[in-house]
Structure formats: structure tokens, C-alpha cells
């Protein structure tokens, strides 16, 4: 019998959502501080001047302190805006002005740039539910990042931002899933390919 990757993904996503929701305040605070430091190190080591990021939802790894830090240092940050066609537009922002997007996720308010603006950043930091050791990224099922990344001929390095426990031996993969070049967690940076 051929495994149904869609069913496997839904089950794994449900488990990961539950884990994220049951994290304690102490765990969240510790991960927020550690992740901010790891993201700062990533940017400094690679001399990043422009980066694509996202506005984290309450259960996601909290990138907002890092966003504030990047803005204070003059790093250009592009933040995603969801489109009806399944792609992402982008806007330069500091996260201070936001609204609720198509799926209730926070989105930046600003001048909308086309998806092509993503090609001008030094790195893309993408949200994820989990990443396998082979670099396969599993998102939350809407396909925005897979479509956007899959449409790029020459894309900057892409790193998924996840909690340490979401770096798994493997995740279910479907043909449309786009691999990432590495992961950033509260405790480490791992590069799969350069």
C-alpha cells in the first residue's frame, strides 16, 4: 500500500500544533531569548543587509525581538503579504504596523512589492512546522512558501525557523514541497546546502 503523504502531514501537523500550544511561559521566554541571539549571530556571521522574514503568530518561534533588533541596525526586512492566488507579495517593514491577513495571521502594512522583490534579499527566513534532516520543509498546508520558492529561478539561501524539537529525522514529502538550505532554532544554525 502506498502511504498517503497528505494524511501523514495532517497528523504530524496536529501533533506539532498541540506541542506548541502546551509550551509553558518559561519555555516560551527562554526560546524567545535564545532564538533572538541565534538569529543575530546568523545575520552578523553572514553580513546580511537585507532579509525576508515573517511576523510570528503566538504559537510560532517568536522572531519579533529579532525584527526590532534588525530594524534598529538598518537591516532591510521584507515581510510577506498573502495573495488570493497562493503567492506572497512583500513589503518593507519593522512589524510596528500590522493587520490580520487572509488566514488570520499577522501581516505588515506597507507599500506592496511584487514577489520578485524576494530575489534581492541576502537570505529568506521562513516559518515551518518541521524540517527533516534531508532539508525537506513541512509548512502548515497552504503552500504559500512552496509556491513562492518554487517560482524563483535564482533564490537566496532559505532557512526555516523552528523549535529544536521540530528538527526531525524525516517529514512526509510531496512533489510540490520545496527544500530549505538550513534551519535556525533557538540553540543552533544548521546548513544543509550552500
TrEMBL record:
Pfam families given in the database record: 5-FTHF_cyc-lig
Residues that hold ATP according to the record: 9-13, 137-145
SUPFAM superfamilies documented for this protein: NagB/RpiA/CoA transferase-like
InterPro entries documented for this protein: FTHF_cligase, FTHF_cligase-like_sf, NagB/RpiA_transferase-like
A molecular function (GO) term: metal ion binding
The keyword tRNA processing is assigned to this record: no
Similarity comment text for this entry: Belongs to the 5-formyltetrahydrofolate cyclo-ligase family.
Protein name: 5-formyltetrahydrofolate cyclo-ligase
Organism: Curtobacterium luteum
Amino acid at each position: 500500500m502506498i502511504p498517503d503523504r497528505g494524511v501523514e502531514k495532517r497528523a504530524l501537523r496536529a501533533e506539532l500544533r498541540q506541542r506548541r500550544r502546551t509550551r509553558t511561559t518559561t519555555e516560551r521566554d527562554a526560546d524567545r531569548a535564545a532564538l533572538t541571539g541565534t538569529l543575530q549571530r546568523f545575520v552578523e556571521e553572514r553580513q546580511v543587509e537585507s532579509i525576508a522574514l515573517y511576523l510570528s503568530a503566538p504559537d510560532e518561534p517568536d522572531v519579533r525581538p529579532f525584527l526590532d533588533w534588525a530594524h534598529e541596525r538598518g537591516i532591510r526586512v521584507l515581510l510577506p503579504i498573502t495573495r488570493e492566488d497562493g503567492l506572497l507579495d512583500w513589503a518593507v517593514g519593522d512589524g510596528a504596523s500590522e493587520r490580520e491577513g487572509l488566514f488570520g495571521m499577522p501581516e505588515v502594512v506597507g507599500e506592496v512589492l511584487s514577489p520578485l522583490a524576494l530575489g534581492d534579499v541576502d537570505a529568506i527566513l521562513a516559518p515551518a512546522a518541521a524540517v527533516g534532516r534531508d532539508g525537506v520543509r513541512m509548512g502548515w498546508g497552504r503552500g504559500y512558501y512552496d509556491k513562492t520558492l518554487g517560482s524563483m529561478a535564482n533564490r537566496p539561501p532559505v532557512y526555516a525557523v523552528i523549535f529544536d524539537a521540530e528538527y526531525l529525522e524525516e517529514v512526509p514529502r510531496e512533489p510540490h514541497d520545496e527544500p530549505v538550505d538550513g534551519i535556525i532554532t533557538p540553540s543552533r544554525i544548521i546548513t544543509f546546502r550552500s
